[in-house]
Amino acid sequence: xxxxxxxxxxxxxxxxxxxxxxxxxxxxxxxxxxxxxxxxxxxxxxxxxxxxxxxxxxxxxxxxxxxxxxxxxxxxxxxxxxxxxxxxxxxxxxxxxxxxxxxxxxxxxxxxxxxxxxxxxxxxxxxxxxxxxxxxxxxxxxxxxxxxxxxxxxxxxxxxxxxxxxxxxxxxxxxxxxxxxxxxxxxxxxxxxxxxxxxxxxxxxxxxxxxxxxxxxxxxxxxxxxxxxxxxxxxxxxxxxxxxxxxxxxxxxxxxxxxxxxxxxxxxxxxxxxxxxxxxxxxxxxxxxxxxxxxxxxxxxxxxxxxxxxxxxxxxxxxxxxxxxxxxxxxxxxxxxxxxxxxxxxxxxxxxxxxxxxxxxxxxxxxxxxxxxxxxxxxxxxxxxxxxxxxxxxxxxxxxxxxxxxxxxxxxxxxxxxxxxxxxxxxxxxxxxxxxxxxxxxxxxxxxxxxxxxxxxxxxxxxxxxxxxxxxxxxxxxxxxxxxxxxxxxxxxxxxxxxxxxxxxxxxxxxxxxxxxxxxxxxxxxxxxxxxxxxxxxxxxxxxxxxxxxxxxxxxxxxxxxxxxxxxxxxxxxxxxxxxxxxxxxxxxxxxxxxxxxxxxxxxxxxxxxxxxxxxxxxxxxxxxxxxxxxxxxxxxxxxxxxxxxxxxxxxxxxxxxxxxxxxxxxxxxxxxxxxxxxxxxxxxxxxxxxxxxxxxxxxxxxxxxxxxxxxxxx
Length: 715
Known about the structure:
Structural class: mainly alpha
Strand content: under 5%
CATH class of the largest domain: Mainly Alpha
Number of domains: 3
Subcellular location: Cytoplasm, Cytoskeleton, Microtubule organizing center
Family: Belongs to the TUBGCP family.
Oligomer: single chain
Strand order of the largest sheet: 1-2
Order of helices and strands: HHHEEHHHHHEHEHHHHHEHEHHHHHH
Organism: Theileria annulata
Radius of gyration: 42 Å
CATH architecture of the largest domain: Up-down Bundle
GO molecular function, one term: gamma-tubulin binding
Largest sheet: 2 strands, antiparallel
Distance between the termini: 84 Å
Keywords: Cytoplasm, Cytoskeleton, Microtubule
CATH topology of the largest domain: Four Helix Bundle (Hemerythrin (Met), subunit A)
Helix content: 55-70%
Mean pLDDT: 79
């Protein structure tokens, strides 16, 4: 048929360029021919035209403005009369519709829609050619004439005209440069005309629509079953399919939220190393607009379940095995129109969502995992306090082992086969104010050392990173971040983007906890120092130091109480009190929770967060400087109470000896403390710390006042 198409298309421009013999055979001694002979020659000439040969009597050209054809007559035939010429023109118009279909076939448009339409066109064109051949065979033995030819072709006239308008009259404004979505535009036009036409036209168009939907629904099923289109012989077939795949990070709308469910499973695929899928709206048929993302999500969800659909879900099970029939009635569809098709997709999507949700709760211990996230990342249990207490004396490897022991203990009571891993890691993101706007860049810096792929985990999370050194003095407390390796399906809820926010919240809370720990250590120092004799002229310096400590403690304790109690605890109580009947309701509620927490912790307010992190750094730096001075033998004093009961004299023979030792200790410690307070460097350090703290606290309050946060009432 392709060679026949090429031959017939050669006459699109119609001309007198026919063979000399053929031209002479029809026109020789024309004026001496009878009217019947002339009509017979016209019939044979038109039959040649339908077979792809040139015409001896007519020439035509396509009008670029309206795509119609203009016909010019050979002056030689003017003597046959206008009626006969008009019949010839009417027959030629049937041929012009034939040419339109042939042009579409010869264009070799790729895609399931165009392939299906082309197959129908080829069948109709072959039937037309058989009709022309039969008429020719009869006409050369017994004269039939132009009117009989027209009557003979008239049944094809409406069919060809309807189909020609189908591939020419569509919304061409939506056509993209490479014409790859032409099939979708034709399908939209086909669906619209099936609704508006009646009678035989409607039956014809409905037959074409059923044929297209048959192939299109099989394509949807292929995506759902196999998730991607990596097969070489299948690539061109999906050109006009609305689900697109890309293996790399080339541009796609995957950074946007899916407009059907509100989450983005295309980004989820990228996160877990699957082919990146996304919905290209330019290729979505109008009747599938509201369920296009549902189709995408069905494929992703079933891949998570590793649950392939064993039969075509759009067909009744009894007839789904039938694959070799051109009769649309041979297939028993579960849908009778495109509305029912969309509804069927919605039902399949709901079933897939329910199955994944059930699997998450039963097999993956979803709510246990969520509780672990709340406990560890949001410091709802004392595990992280233990890490803070040992931060200055243990290596990262030891801290991770200590942390994992808590995780293992919590998980021992659970039935899940996948054992989650929590571990600490260091990064160089010390000031993370404003980083939520740059997730695509910083997400990898804060991300897990492991990426769970189809082949499993790439590394273990408990191995010591040699680049960090063995002891904590080789890394900054501001760089500590908590990472969590979780099961693949759990990442539907705990996406990389969500976990990124949890990690930022942990960084903030960890820094506050570490600052609190440092201040507590400093408080113990001052309690013991207060037991010693301080020279009167040095008391203002000691009081300034104590006053600075109290200011810092007041701020840090109020911040921790606000974040951990007023914000986190209250929001978690609200979250746990709600019922989540399906996966989407849980996802939306959890995302709302995370967004509320990040906002309440000022992770979305760059000015407030930046000034807060500066205050934390000043507090830790002040504590560290005091500790550094105290470790100097010139200024240090015994940290145990000089009036400890265990050191008190308990027998008369040791009384004088112990009294002498007590007096010496008190005298030496007092001397060292007074020497420290008299030191200009130490005095200057305390004054600078107090001044910087007051200045930045004022700035923090100024930024905070514009946020309408309840924290304004607490500090």
